[in-house]
Amino acid sequence: MTTSPGPRRTAARDDIERAHLVDPADRTWSIARAHVSPDLTDLARRFWIPVWDVPEGRDSVQRVLQYPVCLVVVSDTYARFYGVVSGLSHTMLTGRGWAVGLMLQPAAGWLVTGEPVRRMTDRFVDLGVLPTLDGPAVTRGIRGAMGPDPHSPDAQACAREALEEALRRLLPVDDEGLLVNAIVDHVESSPELLRVDELCDRFDISERTLQRLLHKRIGLGPKWLIRRRRLQEAADRLRDSVSGLSGIAAELGYADQAHFTRDFRAATGMTPGEFASRFR
């Protein structure tokens, strides 16, 4: 599936777009998206492959409220492993280029790095320094596939295959990893969940155990996890909701519109009204 910024649409958005604070007026890029192979679903979520052509003298800033997962990104100029970004992620696109990105599962960061993922929060490293992946070989495979024509579906499929093959050596995912996958999935799929104690009750674990688990596997704690999901939901609803700001604030469990506005502006640099006006 390929998507690009365009007119506001009312159909349900996939959750990559929910996290991507896209400017619909920016038409300098497109994104091809694909699921991972079935045997890797405990380890990785999905691919995204942006291709851009930004006119000389301009730039395109991509702003994302990242999910609580690590990322692997290989482009024509860099190859990196990213920890979770606690705030707003910014990527500046200039000139012509492409990237092959893989969104991992919450379980995967620790398996890839071999250490608690909290050490990677708000950081990235070159793929070549990771002990579990042959970063140079992966990078060569992806660039060899994408170089001739990054828009080609066949080229993109070959690039995905190169990265998937490198990840398979990390299987199977351990029981703790499967647990953290389930916890994060529950938070992301349960808009009614607003408190950490509710999450602890659901999985029958103490708050201290939950804190340790999340800091080890995703690098941030349960309060951040719940807050991030609410902010992503807010961005999604602001695109085309008819509820108004007070209605959205109430739907998401905020005490009042002022609290919602402060929270959204602190995370994105925009008020809810400023973000919503992009799509009107």
- How would you state the average pLDDT, rounded? 90
Strand percentage lies at 15-25%
Spell the H/E element sequence: EHEEEEEEEHEHHHHHHHHH
What structural category do the secondary elements indicate? Answer: alpha+beta
Q: Taking Cα atoms only, what radius of gyration do you get, to the nearest Å?
A: 19 Å
Chain oligomer state = single chain
Cα-to-Cα separation, first versus last residue = 25 Å
Give the biggest beta sheet: 7 strands, antiparallel
Which spans have pLDDT < 50 for at least 5 consecutive residues? 1-13
Number of strands: 9
Number of H- or I-type helical stretches: 11
How would you write the strand order of the largest sheet? 1-2-3-8-5-6-9
The helical percent reads 40-55%
| Tertiary shape | globular
Overview of the structural elements:
The chain is an alpha+beta fold and 280 residues long. It has 11 helices and 9 strands. The strands form 2 sheets. The protein has a 7-stranded antiparallel β-sheet, with helices on one face. A two-stranded antiparallel ribbon has the order 4-7. The radius of gyration is 19 Å and the shape is globular. 36% of the residues are buried. The N terminus is likely disordered.
